[in-house]
Design goal:
Elements lengths: L14 H23 L3 E14 L19 H5 L17 E14 L5 E7 L2 H5 L1 H15 L4 E6 L18 E6 L8 E5 L8 E2 L10 E2 L1 H11 L18 H13 L4
Parallel strand pairs: 3-4
Antiparallel strand pairs: 1-2, 2-3, 4-5, 5-6, 7-8
Helix pairs in contact: 1-5
Length: about 260
């Protein structure tokens, strides 16, 4: 079943689906590029690992009975008079460290192993979590300070966009293509929910034919192959919620397709 939205499907941004969608996109983009880049280039799937503190998590574990064990015997305890019942505690949550693994792509030259282009698909943790944003921005700056091209795909409406100097452009989504030879200038493709996802040329070594990346076709393809229509209830509002200007449009679109 095809996606009911002409561009990005906002229901895929739900945190319950995004991790799965992210994995599908990484794989699908690699599959799309490999036939067009070989034999000079190959596409490697890499991952970044870091830890964040999840404020919504609860510290759960089995206490170690050997730690802090009293030397008082059971018999001795039975002889101690209890003056009053124990106080009632307040139940609190303790922050937990969560290991995060994020996938990204590297286009490498086969003969030299050089990383020619890095392709990143932003996650909610990149845009909202303090540790996640710091980890990604560190990697981003390393790429921008190198001879590697950067393609940065942001298909998430929530969170703070990645920094761009003098940026006054407002958009739901954006694709950034930073060519190493053109820095600090870069190509920005901003687009809204009601628009199709723009196609862009993948930067390679100067003089090589650059493949056109049709990200819209990739999104539609994984929606169908992954069966996301079976996981989405279109009678509910998407998470995060739509902007006021898009609510009526999305409602009419879903009603036309008898999904609402």
């Amino acid at each position: 079943m095809p996606s009911p939205f002409p561009g990005m499907n906002p229901y895929l941004e739900n945190p319950e689906l995004w991790s799965e969608c992210h994995h599908w996109m990484i794989t699908a983009i690699a599959e799309f590029l490999v036939p067009q880049l070989r034999p000079k280039y190959r596409v490697a799937v890499e991952k970044r690992v870091y830890q964040i503190t999840d404020d919504n998590s609860i510290l759960v574990g089995i206490p170690d009975v050997a730690v802090g064990r009293s030397l008082t015997t059971t018999e001795e305890l039975s002889n101690i008079a209890v003056a009053s019942p124990p106080a009632k505690p307040v139940i609190v949550n303790l922050p937990m460290l969560e290991e995060v693994r994020e996938g990204y792509l590297e286009v490498r030259e086969v003969g030299t192993g050089e990383v020619v282009t890095a392709i990143e698909i932003l996650s909610p943790k990149n845009k909202r979590s303090k540790e996640g944003r710091k980890a990604y921005e560190s990697k981003r700056q390393q790429v921008l300070n190198s001879l590697t091209h950067l393609v940065e795909i942001d298909l998430l409406r929530s969170g703070e966009p990645m920094p761009i100097l003098g940026n006054q452009i407002q958009s739901d989504y954006r694709i950034l293509v930073s060519r190493s030879e053109s820095r600090p200038k870069a190509e920005l493709y901003p687009f809204g929910l009601q628009e199709k996802i723009p196609a862009f040329l993948l930067p390679l070594h100067r003089g090589d034919r650059e493949p056109l990346v049709d990200l819209q076709a990739v999104i539609h393809g994984i929606y169908d192959r992954a069966g996301f229509d079976l996981a989405i209830d279109y009678t509910r509002e998407p998470v995060p919620p739509l902007a006021e200007a898009d609510v009526a449009w999305a409602n009419g679109l879903l009603q036309q397709q008898e999904l609402r």
